[in-house]
């Protein structure tokens, strides 16, 4: 029944959503009830900024041609990494994609003729968690994404904060010494506490190649000293970051997302204890794992598409929540 | 002309505003064009929480009876220190006043029968700076008040952030060691970088009593080593705080207020350099001194009163701006 055209009402509305990463572009087609089609393609970022943007346009076309005949596309939602100014619709800078001052929203509007919602990958993920996942009904919260990189999104008084794209860029800066960072600084949190840094620091200290932070954690659990030290350093830096986020924003709720959250209580247990030790006048925040996993960015992009189309988000959020929280 | 009743329109509207501090309650009566009457009374906080609140009610009565016969009071604005939840109208906790979970807004409404605007002293000062002073026309900014205490206010996307009263409480927490702080923590920023801490640390290190941070700065300027070290420590801690504020919120504009800003370029010069050194991916923020000085809290309280009364703030802000920025 859901895949037939209602002759009285015509084809049903659908959106196309893209979560653009440095390695893959994940796409999906969704109607108000949930996902209809999905897939992913390689970003080919190494081939240059223009090539990466061409892949984005091709992927939008692929997704649009995957919209079933029973549906008609009403909007496009796209989330990208880097410094993203949602208000202007511009990717100010993306290290991963090589983009600089790229008017993504306008280019996509011209390409598709559709309403376009454009956002930042971490803020899109945070929006999805806040509406569908681990942050529902909480007006003041931060979302911390710990994966290859490290960044936060601030939802304050129910509104996502952007500050021209620079809000939540906690992975870089703050320190005056420490290990050199890709950003040109030293001792940035991303050099110690990202999933990539955990693997890199372990290999640098032990000479042993590992399969990511998960492998380092397994070695720490097995009692290996170097692995334990590297893991504990990461948790300590993360604790300091989360405590700073809470001190500055005052939020009572912190959602931890990104690949590292798969460590579960090995991460969250000591993180809660150490954040608590660093807070004195602030109430202890709830620190909870993200509920949507790797799909948060795509769900967020779909919501961006619906919002741009002018749809009423209420029933969509209700329907998506059930689908999004279902274990994959 | 301004002090006569227009027979066609009746008495003109006025508000009563209180800036409640631990030592003095400053009050004023203002109409849409500026201040009509003002004064201050001792808070007598040492006599206990109930006494301090009785002083507030008395001061409201004093101010109301000072409203000229040509005017009629339409609102009351009150700013208080501590943890203030504007949404609920409650002072959650004020160390200085001894208040805990005091429903200030409701009590004042019952006492006066007028519309009441209730706020936090630092956020009120920040609102005044943002509308009348050094933060005009800037939607994303932070205000840092460095005086007896140390706290910040966050204006993001044109809206003041509160998070139940805990936003911007950067003076406490964050560290795990250092000097003991009144909050029960160790190494809090307030133990090094507040105006009070600068005087206290100098006296502890030198055995010499001083007349506040101003005196310490004068000794540092004169080449005294201990004073220089104490001053530089304070600037370093402040730089770290301001850099954290910018990293978390992404704002391009920082207003420094409170007593310490009278140090001028001795504070702002090294602060700008050190904040810049700590930022890598964020653009260097503008760091500017507050424009309204010690009157920011009172102007902010007056705006709270007008807002509560339902008045159109546009013309009031325009008229107040000229008055507020005039050197006292």
Automatic annotation (TrEMBL), chains A, B:
GO terms for molecular function: kinase activity. Gene3D superfamilies: 3.30.420.40. Keywords: Kinase, Transferase. The keyword Transferase applies. Pfam families: ROK. InterPro entries: ATPase_NBD, ROK. The keyword Transferase applies. Belongs to the ROK (NagC/XylR) family. This is Transcriptional regulator/sugar kinase. It comes from Saccharomonospora azurea NA-128. The lineage of its organism: Bacteria, Bacillati, Actinomycetota, Actinomycetes, Pseudonocardiales.
